[in-house]
Amino acid sequence: RKEVEQDPGPFNVPEGATVAFNCTYSNSASQSFFWYRQDCRKEPKLLMSVYSSGNEDGRFTAQLNRASQYISLLIRDSKLSDSATYLCVVSPEYGQNFVFGPGTRLSVLP
Amino acid sequence: GAGVSQSPSNKVTEKGKDVELRCDPISGHTALYWYRQRLGQGLEFLIYFQGNSAPDKSGLPSDRFSAERTGESVSTLTIQRTQQEDSAVYLCASSPSSLNYGYTFGSGTRLTVV
Predict the structure, then answer these.
(1) What is the pLDDT of residue A92?
(2) Is B50 a residue whose pLDDT tops 90?
(3) What's the pLDDT at A102?
(4) Mutate to test the interface with B, among A43, A96, A104 (most CBs of B within 10 A)
(5) Mutate to test the interface with A, among B10, B39, B43, B107 (most CBs of A within 10 A)
(6) DSSP-assigned states of every residue in chain A
(7) Is the pLDDT higher at B66 or at A96?
(8) What is the pLDDT of residue B25?
């Protein structure tokens, strides 16, 4: 089993749609969780951290379920500019490198 | 500077030549990472430096790859006797020591081996 797995995608949705991405991780000792976005031919950029209590940033909501080792990202009222690849990132035990999921590509269509 | 700086931004080299890629992390960031991303693929971990600890080299694909870091500053990734399969974007990232902060990536070096 891969350390971090994501929905394979791609997701093609119309503007204004709500879309949800799922991510699972294998290491139950993982400490920190993030969502990154990567635009075509650009470097990944931090979108948001994911906290146990869940957190929201505008149209974006992230949830963490430690018992199920599951992370989600919900995008409401999607915009054309949300088109990108979304990467789930998990930090294992302290002192070890972050593990990136393979990413899920989103295309928001006019 | 305010961000992670990588140089060169693009490098074309002939098969068999050595190349050196440079990364300047954000000042004060103790952790530095190198990743490789082939076209249309995910990020592949290469090496991780954390302060003065021994680096985690578990992701280096072969002994042609090596990396150095001077203290908590500049890092160089060296690829010896480059092969065509080394063609990729090499991304450097840095982060503070706390696990609660994500990485900040540089814009990468696009390496093409011809």
Answers:
(1) 74
(2) no
(3) 92
(4) A43
(5) B43
(6) --SEEE----EEEETT--EEEEEEES-TT--EEEEEEE-TTS--EEEEEE-TT-EEETTEEEEEETTTTEEEEEE-S--GGG-EEEEEEEE-STTS--EE---EEEEEE-
(7) B66
(8) 95
